Automatic annotation (TrEMBL):
Record key words, sorted: ATP-binding, Cell membrane, Kinase, Membrane, Nucleotide-binding, Serine/threonine-protein kinase, Transferase
Renumbered residue ranges of the record's region Disordered: 15-35, 387-421
PROSITE patterns membership: PROTEIN_KINASE_ATP, PROTEIN_KINASE_DOM, PROTEIN_KINASE_ST
Chain ranges of the Protein kinase domain: 94-380
Main location: membrane
Record's protein name: non-specific serine/threonine protein kinase
GO MF annotations, alphabetized: ATP binding; protein serine/threonine kinase activity
Compartmental location: Cell membrane
One Pfam family of this chain: PK_Tyr_Ser-Thr
Protein family according to the UniProt entry: Belongs to the protein kinase superfamily. Ser/Thr protein kinase family.
Described function: May be involved in plant defense signaling.
GO CC list: plasma membrane
Amino acid sequence: MGNCLRSFFYDPSPSSIANNNPSTPGTSNSTYSSTTTIDVSATSSSIVCKSQFSEAASHDERNEVISNANGQILESSNLEKFTFADLKRATKNFKSDTLLGEGGFGKVYKGWIDQKTYAPSKSGSGMVVAIKKLNSGSMQGLAEWQSEVNFLGRLSHPNLVKLLGFCWEDKELLLVYEFMPKGSLENHLFRRNPNIESFSWDLRLKIAIGAARGLAFLHTSEKKVIYRDFKASNILLDEKYNAKISDFGLAKLGPSGGESHVTTRVMGTYGYAAPEYIATGHLYVKSDVYGFGVVLLEMLSGQRALDWKRPPGQRNLVEWLKPLLSHKKKLKTTIMDSRIEGQYSSKAMVQAAQLTLKCLKADPKNRPSMKEVVEVLEQIEAMKEKPKATKSTLVSSLSKPHRRGQQPTQHRPLFIPGRRAPKYEREVNIRKITKKKVK
């Protein structure tokens, strides 16, 4: 059994905002990845102890309040404590063929455990899990590990990846998650691997709605949570392509006491971080909305938020395409992904572009809430454009055989005021008048 869970939460000083560097992409086979951040330097003097949630503890052993000289943390009652030996067996001693991906602070492996007891099981049997093993000796890794346990250990929602448990033995820090078999949104949008399916318009909308619901839950919970690193690689997909937000390593409790923002060192991913956060270190709940707008633009265009292979002026997706979102013609010809052409109505396309533009507003006050984003996306999803009638469909409808005993419908030409009726109609009218006179 590992050491008891101690309370160390990274709370950097706002005065230490540094110059930003481009993020490092994960490996090509990455399904889960550790967070790649703008500025990740940390010192031990920056580590302070904070309890993330204030709910009362039960008498259950796993919910024991563990105190130390710096404070206390409320352990989560629904998290399993794994031993390092068990997780070694679950991953075949962290064998290379179980590696799912890696990032700045560690590697993620595929493992197998018993569904009921959570004991390690043989490869291919039991429940599949994803096991994140953090690099030993990383203070930032420790901070992110702690944040994951604090937030995902307490938060439960259909659109958040489920954290099953943790391990801390000596310098070994590990987290055990539910396995997401369809990988990340990033893989499907940008990897040109023929074995990876390109998503349809309807599926992209479904994923956007699921991710938006996850963020809306975080923003409207009793203790507001700012996710801080919303991006395509952090949206994972289950067997039915339901979207779940993963990697809470940079998550932070939102402002309280009437404050509009929290101040912290700038951390996140280039291309997704909100401009006010990069410039001032002020983190708003609606800073997440900006990141969502970037992902929405990626889903519409099929282009990465940052791509240094694109020509100058087009490398930053928002700077390149944001000015075009309000132009319907350029929206169709320049922005929309050619792989989903013909799968959406013009009205749905325009509304999606307008929503994206609102999310990307420079002033966070002018951005919609995530609850409002969900409502608009659901309206777009409900749009079903009626197919326009063509000559062939009209002819086929007129030539349908009639039932026995039923007279075929006679389609008389439309009479337009100001025009003389056709000759045969004038003759019919004259006969009617004549019959009336005779009577």
